[in-house]
Amino acid sequence: MTKRGTKGFSRLINATRFTFKGLIAAWKNEEAFRLEVLGLLCILPLAIWLASSYLQFALLWGSGLVVVIVELINSAIEAVVDRIGEERHELSGRAKDMGSAAVFLALILTAIIWIAVVFDRFSG
Q1: Nearest Cα residue to 94 out of 104, 81, 83, 107
Q2: Against a cut of 0.70, is the pTM above it?
Q3: Contact call for residues 13 and 2 (beta carbons, < 8 A)
Q4: Catalytic residue among 30, 31, 36, 71
């Protein structure tokens, strides 16, 4: 953990280290995260080919990245809920369900963007 009062470059170094620890932990412990990252990497060549502008590429690639970001947040919620206890509780279940719903909506957003770009590319 960072010491209170860490500032400047030291704070940036610590934040970067914690970021990579979080990404590594998600990769090791969350199958959904691994699948979404691999999917994002697989669609990169398709996004390069499909996009007819830098904006379209940013939308295609960015929407996939949003899914990965939301999955990280969902995984963090699940980890905190699981840390609290294994007994079933309505609020714990609700928190996990909402995190899952957020990932689902991010996937829908990605699908909408990809469909719109495909139609734009091949509509004329």
Answers
A1: 81
A2: yes
A3: no
A4: 71
